[in-house]
Write a sequence for this structure.
């Protein structure tokens, strides 16, 4: 399947109660699975949970961008990490710890299952604690180059996430891997096969492997992306 999809984080019509809610309170929380790769190794979506406490052992890599709320995560190495809106939380395969949600938490998550266990250190990354890398661009492109920073890359290189930004531009898209991009800033129109989709802050743009089209950024763009090289 190579059709693009746009999922609005504010649209709760397809959200479901958590099947196996963590913690001790009666509220089950809710989530939406927005995309699953053909081999079911890569999943992304939205997840919400009210204040609660529970322990976890990750059997997969997860990277989450916090959209609202706050939490403290006690890692197995004794550190306590605090996350809030705009922070990225990385809990790799094999990581352990305890969640303490202090204010109802909403996150966009990307999960990779089946990868090897590597560095299992839990990480919390603030938007001001990163180093941007300048990307290559075509010689005939008059615009300044884009920039990005990586939040996580799995040990086998099949799953990676980060944040990307660039000035307004128009150009072709040819997607060689499954990608889910949560738009943080800007307005974009993506055209393919005679139709177009508008993407705005709070929207999730899903472009499966094999998708091709045209990207039209109407304003400077910043997006949190998760890519699966299946």
């Amino acid at each position: 399947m190579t059709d693009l999809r746009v999922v609005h984080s504010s649209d709760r019509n397809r959200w479901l109660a958590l099947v196996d809610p963590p913690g001790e309170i009666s509220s089950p929380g809710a989530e939406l699975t927005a995309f699953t790769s053909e081999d079911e190794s890569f999943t992304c979506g939205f997840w919400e949970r009210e204040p609660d406490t529970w322990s976890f052992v990750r059997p997969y890599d997860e990277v989450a961008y916090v959209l609202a709320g706050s939490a403290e995560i006690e890692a197995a190495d004794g550190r306590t990490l605090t996350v809030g809106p705009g922070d990225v939380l990385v809990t790799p395969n094999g990581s352990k710890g305890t969640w303490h949600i202090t204010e109802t938490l909403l996150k966009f998550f990307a999960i990779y299952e089946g990868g090897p266990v590597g560095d299992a250190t839990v990480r919390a990354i603030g938007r001001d604690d990163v180093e941007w890398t300048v990307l290559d661009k075509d010689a005939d492109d008059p615009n300044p180059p884009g920039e990005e920073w990586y939040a996580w890359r799995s040990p086998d290189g099949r799953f990676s996430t980060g944040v990307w930004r660039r000035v307004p531009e128009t150009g072709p898209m040819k997607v060689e891997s499954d990608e889910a991009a949560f738009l943080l800033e800007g307005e974009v129109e993506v055209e393919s096969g005679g139709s177009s989709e508008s993407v705005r802050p709070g929207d999730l743009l899903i472009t499966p492997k094999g998708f091709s089209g045209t990207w039209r950024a109407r304003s400077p763009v910043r997006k949190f992306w998760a890519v699966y090289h299946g």
Notes: The radius of gyration is 18 Å. The chain has a mean pLDDT of 92.
